[in-house]
Amino acid sequence: MKNNPDDYVSKVVGAASQVDPAEWNALLALQAHPTPFLRHEYLAALEASGSATAGTGWTPKFFTLTRGGELHAACALYLKDHSYGEYVFDWAWANAYQEHGLDYYPKGLVAVPFTPVPGTRLLARDAAARLALLETLLTWCRREKLSSLHLLFGAGEDVAACEEAGLMLRHTVQFHWHNGGSESVDAGGRYASFDTFLASLAHDKRKKIRQERRKVADAGVTFRSSTGAGIAAADWDFFYRCYERTYLEHGNAPYLTRDFFRRMAATLPQHWLLFVAERGDRPIAASLVALNEPPRQPRAPGAGRVAYGRYWGALERVDCLHFEACYYQPLQWCIAHGWDRFEGGAQGEHKMARALMPAKTTSAHWLAHPAFADAVERFLAREGRGIEHYLDRLERRSPFRHAG
């Protein structure tokens, strides 16, 4: 590709293996909102395991901008021939294209496959490099005659670049838990214990959580947790049995292969926390949580420690086991280990009853067809107003105790 006006040398390759891992990860470490899901090991494992490949509708393209031999900007883009595994839904847009005899697929997607976690998408040394990278993406999409370009769950700096480049913004709502409140906190501003967290909730919410936890305990279920290299191969195998079964029970094959998690255990173990539920001497369920930094790593100044609820499954049915495995055990762990935030993933108003509060996330969109772009822009304006009203209603339903 040609050099852009800012003298960057741009390049696009078709596999993570064609990008230097150390350079990629070093650039990621400079970002304000890095996540483990954009580490080279994670993206490479998605490809090598067969989880996100051309065969599954995720054709990878890695863009880099260099200057003087140094990497200044980079991102992962996927050519998509469907809209599965994205969590920002554009099926109606695709159907409208089809009804007018136009092709919506393939489209360009800047996102982490199957991972609705907000964070940096456009790796860059500075704002100028980030904007140059985005302009390079748009130029490439036009040249390839793609219908559209979509950047999902971007960080604030990504959104700012997209706005400057003229992309349309779309908002969705997730639910995140924050460790700390106006009372019952330790010297660091966090909850001192799970009980002090419960004390911050309204009486009915506190009572319900205790009832749900009691049901699991009364069923004879206990939990153990392990992190990093402490997660045994047998536990990874058991987790995958649970994860796969949950997908199959809903009529779908799982997005991620067993080999993907095998690669995570080998190349990125420090970013995983596993809970295993046991009844008697039998494991019956598991939930897997990702961590934005290793648990025992010294805390960087100003850095927030974030846990991400990702996957779960069960081989036996126990009332309220899902809530215990996916919310109460991770929240209890976050409190005990001083983690700042737990992100519960896409959608799910029921999470508010567990004190996960609404958080607005943002994606950005460019459509090549002017008439469709105009129609989508009007739709997004209406949808955006609805999202703001929805957030207002949710905030009024806070599960926390109110003064007075």
UniProtKB/TrEMBL annotation:
Superkingdom in the source lineage: Bacteria
Calcium recorded as keyword: no
Key word Transferase present: yes
Keywords: Transferase
SUPFAM superfamilies: Acyl-CoA N-acyltransferases (Nat)
Residue ranges that the Swiss-Prot or TrEMBL entry lists as coiled coil: none
Gene Ontology molecular function terms on file: transferase activity
Pfam family, one: FemAB_like
InterPro entries reported for this sequence: Acyl_CoA_acyltransferase (IPR016181), FemAB-like (IPR007434)
Name of the protein in its database record: N-acetyltransferase
UniProt source species: Ramlibacter lithotrophicus
Lineage: Bacteria, Pseudomonadati, Pseudomonadota, Betaproteobacteria, Burkholderiales
